[in-house]
Please model this.
Amino acid sequence: MIKSILNIFLAILLMPVPMKAQLHGIPNSFRHYNTEQGLSNNWVFCFLEDDQGFMWIGTRDGLNRFDGYDFNVYDESNSNLEGSYIRVLHKGTDNTIWVGTHTTGLYRYSWKEDDFTPLINIAGDSASLSNNRVTSITESSDGLVWVGTYGGGLNSVDTRTMQVQRYDLGPECTQIRALEIDKNDNLWIGTSVGLYYFDRNTKGEGKISHFDPENISQSDHRILSLHIDILGRLWVGTNGAGLFYFDSDSKLLKRLQVKLPELTESAIRKITSSTDGKILLGTGNYGVLIIDPVSNQTQSISFDQDNLFLFRG
Model:
């Protein structure tokens, strides 16, 4: 049952309005979950499936763990989780659940204790998290969890010692909205002013490079989402300027040319890909869009205002 639930969650990721799917590979019947079934809040921002099959769901008012039947809600009343506005979740390679909040920092879930260890910003302490507004989390193969914040830039957490390290990548990299790590453990960083690449393998403290999307105005450089597909291509979602991919030969961010006005009229808040290479986009105004980058064919999920669906973003 958990697997079917995960498929539904993937289909409706960041849906802003009710939906009814009519797409190949997506079920055409849905089970609706909301506060009446035990969900802590109807505004869902993130979710993941852990190695045990539980679904973790971050909402604007509480973190939920769903076993396919019941919701177990974590918040300030029953755990060390300060603040209930959950913006990002990440499952570590050891099945550790990392929780990023809107204003109260980063938390690590302990399966043994069934509780959370906080990593927060402490004024005057450079060994603490740089900012409590966590926007993105990823992990490299050397045991570091990378944490992007909005206003404090980039941090890493050593999963063995829980020590935090801050990275000064310049004033342009303080407002981080998305992180993605490549096969060489280097970081792509999406910010409010464009795309940056942090080459950790360069001697010293690493090298930072900046890439501007082609043919867009400076005001459209806000990047909201990043994703590396099964072919190793980097996809970049913007706030109203369309979908881009990184051309490794020319070292340019190129706009995907498809006849789909929704791509340039909406915020692309989430990108993922299927095993057959299709790109799935969670948008701010047009629901889920599916693109075949080879044929440039597109699909979308239709909406039914009379058939209310739960998850919104």
DSSP finds one helix and 24 strands in the chain.
